[in-house]
Specification:
single chain, alpha+beta, Cytochrome Bc1 Complex, Chain A, domain 1, PH-domain like, 3 domains, 19 strands, Metalloenz_LuxS/M16, Zn-dependent peptidase, metal ion binding
Length: about 500
């Protein structure tokens, strides 16, 4: 099926993507900024802005919502064209008058967000996206927003001034633009450069997170249609192999996150029983290898085309495509007037094989953190991939005498663990560049220059030092001799702009 035609109009200086779709009339205001554009320290600012804006919009009687997603902040309403137009105009007015918000407005919405987050409030997250990207870019979708209670009025307004304006906005409508509709947004400003997310780990496995099993990889092609078919074909093939044939899972839920114009990060969440997790992971890797070497057969390609054609008849899918188009334009993956849909029917089995073969060096397995796995060597042999590892600490790279010389200068402080607090024989070294924990069990470090956020609790007397690569270190002050000096030293050497106070008993995942 051919998707309904899309018209590109100019509405109050903002591109509007209009298509006649047989659904309740819907209008959406989209901004090209989302969770991936924050940092571990600022995570939650976009969500706070969403709340502040909707508070200023006031009561709305039609179906509506505001969402903060990976790539966009969006405001939509459904109803009559007049009602939808009124809602979007009020959103624009609320954004244009954001500098009228008060400190009390921010405090109020922070409390509401705390209630919304529930057990996740002020806690760092975990999951496969952190394993792949660290505590940055796409990893922030799993990381959460542990520092959100520290966000200020100035933080919110700075974010809004940078991203919420006519130069980073688009509209979508599932029918003609409402009569007389105008949108008042702040004037367009230059968009900051965006860093293209790239995974920091490939071809490895790790136990982490709550999902029983996730297979992830990067699909690359200059043809979007090749990636689209490869992505959904993999999902269906995994379900057939692991559920229908081997009875190891109940479901396979795929997700896709664009990286650039020619690369998409894809993941497949599977739900085997804990004792079947390794068998399911092994089966998934075997299937990938088969498709990379032999490719799918033509009947599998035909099934995918039939499935895509059927989905394209769904008005909800058509509306979703319209919003995705607006997001892709704002994120720079499409030109303003590039509305043509990818030609899926031109995709061949050889095209899909090439995409999957090229992705083999990017595959990664994440098990749930409590999965009862055999020893590392056995898992590695089964998957053909080693366990993922954090960067080697500086201390480990030195000989014993080199390390002794390193910690001798006055600027290096050494703190000993308290025997009756469970840290007998442990030491904490704080030099000008890093914090290093050393015990009989091992060594880890967090560098100050790659620390995206450092959480501290005055009441609970701990620091949570978060590393960019996905790891973190809890420093419980009561476990160390010289706690007051240690606390002051960390507060001095950790960059001010990544520090955030929290109230929770622990920042660890719920």
């Amino acid at each position: 099926m051919t998707l309904p035609a899309i018209r590109v109009l100019d509405v109050s200086g903002v591109p509007a993507y209009v298509s006649d779709i047989a659904t309740t009339f819907t209008g959406t205001l989209v901004f090209g900024v989302g969770l991936r554009d924050e940092t571990a320290r600022t995570a939650g600012t976009a969500h706070l802005l969403e709340h502040l804006i909707m508070k200023r919009v006031g009561k709305v009687t039609v179906t509506h919502n505001a969402t903060t997603a990976d790539e966009v902040i969006a405001f939509f309403a459904q109803g009559s064209p007049a009602q939808v137009g009124d809602f979007l105009a009020r959103v624009g007015a609320a954004i244009s008058s954001l500098h009228e918000i008060t400190v009390d407005d921010v405090l109020e919405q922070r409390r509401i967000i705390s209630a919304e987050l529930g057990e996740g409030d002020e806690r760092i997250g975990r999951g496969n996206l952190i394993d792949r990207f660290g505590n940055q870019s796409l990893g922030l979708l799993d990381f959460g927003s542990p520092a959100h209670r520290s966000h200020t009025r100035a933080d919110a307004l700075g974010f809004a001034d940078t991203w919420l304006h006519a130069g980073n906005a688009a509209l979508t409508f599932t029918g003609p633009v409402p009569d007389g509709f105008t949108l008042d947004l702040p004037a367009a400003r230059p968009i900051p450069d965006r860093t293209v997310p790239e995974p920091i780990r490939h071809e490895a496995w790790i136990p982490n997170g709550e999902i029983p099993l996730v297979l992830s990889l990067v699909l690359r092609s200059t043809e979007a249609a090749h990636i689209a078919i490869a992505r959904t074909l993999l999902e269906d093939a995994l379900l057939t192999r692991l559920r229908t044939e081997r009875h190891l899972v109940y479901s396979v839920n795929g997700f896709a996150l664009p990286l650039s114009t020619d690369a998409t990060f894809v993941g497949y969440a599977l739900d085997p029983r804990a004792e079947d997790a390794l068998s399911a992971a092994t089966g998934a890797i075997e299937l990938l290898r088969e498709l990379a070497e032999a490719g799918p057969d033509e009947s599998a390609i035909r099934e995918q085309l039939e499935s895509w054609d059927a989905a394209d008849e769904d008005p909800l899918v058509q509306a979703s495509h319209l919003d995705a188009l607006a997001g892709a334009v704002l994120r720079g993956r499409r030109g303003r007037d590039d509305v043509a849909a990818a030609d899926l029917h031109a995709v061949t089995a050889a095209d899909v094989q090439r995409v999957i073969a090229d992705a083999m060096t990017t595959r990664f397995i994440t098990f749930a953190g409590d999965t009862p796995l055999p020893d590392d060597d056995e898992v590695t042999a089964a998957l053909g991939m080693p366990p993922a590892e954090d960067p080697t600490p500086f201390a480990v790279s030195l000989s014993r005498m080199e390390w002794v010389r390193h910690v001798m200068p006055d600027e290096v402080e050494v703190f000993s663990g308290r025997t009756f607090r469970g840290l007998r024989g442990a030491d904490l070294f704080v030099d000008l560049e890093r914090v290093t924990f050393s015990s009989r069990e091992g060594t880890m470090e967090v560098r100050f220059d790659s620390m995206p956020v450092a959480l501290y609790s005055e009441g609970q007397r701990y620091w949570c030092l978060v590393g960019r690569e996905g790891h973190f270190m809890i420093v419980d002050l009561d476990q160390w001799r010289g706690a007051a000096k240690l606390h002051d030293l960390l507060g001095t050497r950790i960059p001010d702009d990544v520090q955030a106070g929290v109230d929770m008993e622990t920042p660890l995942p719920a």
